[in-house]
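Protocol step 4 of 6: structure prediction from sequence.
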Amino acid sequence: MYSKDINAVYMENVALPSTGTALAGPDSRLVYSGTTLFPAITDPVTRQNLNTAANPNISDAELMVNTSKGYTYDATIELQKTAKEFSFTLAYTHADSRSVNDGGSIAQSIWSQRPVSGDPNSDVTSYSGFYEPNRIIASVSYRKEYAKNLATSIGLTYEAANSGVASYTYSGDLNNDGVRGNDLIFIPKTQSDIVLVPNGNTDTRTPDELWNQLNAYINQDPYLSKHRGQYAQRNGLLLPFFNQINLNITQDIFVSTGKVRNTLQLEFNIINLGNMLNRNWGDYKFVNSTQFLSFQKIAPAGDPNAGKPEFSFPYFNAATKAPLTQTFGEGTSIASRWQAQFGLRYIFN
């Protein structure tokens, strides 16, 4: 299957200025001269608001426009085998999904919640939030009728796929577009590509210590290590594969009256059977931090790093002064825990 956007919707903030100053260094994105063309005007003496209908205060103004850049495709190959009492399926799907934005609840969030590395109003495509390149589905079942009025079914289903995507952004508002946390990071290739500073007065790490810790984190990350010297992509980080096995056991007790079969069905399910057998199986991992770099300020004129942004690399655990060392953490949601279900059903047909 293949789908192509013809007139998809995305938003532009027409209140955002087009002027600004480019950052110094390898990350040369534009830092806007202001967050809006229509700022608040206050009387310096009375502190009264002086905005009028002719000179309003507008934080942002979203304009709905169209784009044809998005697309998605998927291809599936499947094997099936069905016998009288046995059935088996195995399917693999490869897919890609690109979009300008994935939508939102209101126009403002459609614009502001899209991670960007350049012009926030540009219709740049990247991986959509629904990107899942690889997925495997399998099932096997066996059903046996016996003793005239009984039937037992046993079935297993298996699913494996990437458990989501994530975007690496800075904490703070690097490009001064009025939105915090939507600026995609520039992944440093060497220490000279980034200016690191302590994260507050209690952080006593030197620039070299900060770089060594950050560099070690980048090296172990499957996405960051492969894209040094580049901007991170929106939804570029693929989460690891999850593997889930579900078990179903069904017992039918039936009586036929003429052409009608009355069945009392007892059902038992175990969701995420692997996790019941081993606590380390059936785990949906999550990202420990998608904002591991915090924007502090742009170095002023006269500073050796004038025009370059300064970032901190906060401790993962400030109490123990432990840095962030691993991209993924062990899943804590219900999806990473096994569950059991019992059911009772009456069927007549």
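Step 5 (inspection) to follow. The chain has one domain: 72-348.
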